[in-house]
Amino acid sequence: MRAFVSELSRRTRDLGHALLVWLAAALAAVWWWSPLGEAADRPFFDAFTVLSAPHHNDLPIVVLAIDEPSFQELQQTWPFPRQWHAALIDRLREDGARAVAFDVVFAEPGDPAQDQAMADAIARWRQPGGTPAVVLAATRERLDTGQTTLWTEVTPLQRLLDAGAVAGQAGVSPDADFVVRRAPADPDSLSARLAAAQGAPASAADWIRYNGPRGGIDTRSYYQTITPGLLPPGFFKNKLVLVGRSLRTATELTASQADMFNSPFAWLDGSDRLMPGVELHAHLLANRLLGNGLVSASPWWTLGAGGLFSLLLAAFALRMHPGLVAVGTASAAAAGVGLSYAAFAQGGHWASPAPLLAMLGAAYGVSAVWGFVATRRRARHIRQMFAQYVPPEVVSELVAHPELMRLGGETRELTVMFTDLASFTTLAERLDPQHTVAVLTEYFNTMTAIVHRHHGTVDKFIGDAVMAFWGAPLPVPDHARHAVDAAIEMQQAMAAMVTRLQAQGLPPIGMRIGIHSGPAVVGNIGSETRFSYTAIGDTVNLAARLEGANKAFGTGILLSASTAALLGHDAPLLRPLADVVVKGKTAAVRVYTPCNDADLVASSTRQLEAAGQPALALDKL
Fold first, then answer.
1. Nearest CA-CA partner of 480 in 595, 577, 571, 410
2. Which parts of the chain span the membrane according to its record (predicted)?
């Protein structure tokens, strides 16, 4: 009977585990169908794009960029005179180009003579069979009112259309991160109109296959075309040409930012992450000519694979070593990503691996919880034991990385603080040992809480002194600023504590603080039988010397120039005091103290910068 109950309990536990795994996988699949799931697809699309970009250089496509060199060479602001566009059209026609598309909306009438010149140039270019040779951009402008959304069709000048040009929609649909990944569904898009001049068939692709990063398609400057002699005769023969703005400077981008988009290649070269709209249309045109645009694949194969792997994981997770389960899950995920990439690169289909990974991750996470219970219990035991001796941050680091429980250290950039109590001996003479310990306990509790609140680590208590540092065991951004803010708050707390002591008829005490930033060795230092997590090195020594140097200046806080240089622009005002040479050092160190008097800070700075100010030797401190 007992064996039967035990087996029933085991089977019930296994069934509950399987149901939880399947439920987690199902919830992950539902999550992928939400808008958040679309955001998870984007990194994979961009990575696959970068890895599989064909980088074709023999495409019959040329981009004529209205770029910075064109503005400089032509000495003309935007918009350019339309007679220049007329000259460009004539040059392309005479060179034997197949067609040209302008990613520029000529919606407003300009100078009548120049409009007529452009219309005449369009009329002179007649393709065999009546196929339009000049495509002009059209667009749709959206107007949101409080109650409805209105779309306005912005088309080229009728005079230009009557001359033989055809309008092509230049609009694209960027995702939330402003990367254009989807191909326009409009059959009258700019690229579709231009592809018709090459006789390319209609495309069923709904995703863009980029041929490469910005500049991956043959690009020439606009001025090179309209300036005689810069491009050889016949350069454009049998080419499809796209003309549009391609600007990089901030001034020009302000005027044309609506025609600049993020690129899937941005993470490769963040310095040039924007891709001009005209080049996007060139990639779309290349997809149509090569027939290699991407088609959406059914998501059911990834969802089905995720469900199958989740089922297998639920069946074997409780019977296999956790390491084998992790390896199996990772292998399934890698296989899913690999197949998705193969479909992308070779099959021309976009099937995101995100749902498979989400389902596997959710299923594995639920299974892993079961195996992590014992580990968590051990972690709590370690935490409770060591929390009595070391800061909480160190405990967390030791729990996460038990290998740190060995002797040794590493060099880190730290900010080190030393504090000491002035006149504490006089106070201790007035108190019995119990009261002395009580005062010290209140002092240490107060200062430790402030250090921890500012993300610091209290290293040790040395008599009535405190040693703390920032930047270890975990990195702390702006560690110098945290240390200085903590020092100021510690002095404020000290003032309140002194007021309470004086109210009890006890003599006042003071606190001195020294702060220095620099490299130090931090880690478990000591013997094999007894060690502590601490920092050592010249940075630590100098911070201790600066604490004592407060005696020479009558200050409560001294910090080095190294620390001052790391503070942000909104840091507390610092008054420079002197260049000092502390005991054991030969090089002078400039020291500062926080000061709220801007006039005094400015005056001290001028005096210290005056010629002939020798370094102050503090050999006894």
1. 571
2. 300-318, 325-344, 356-375
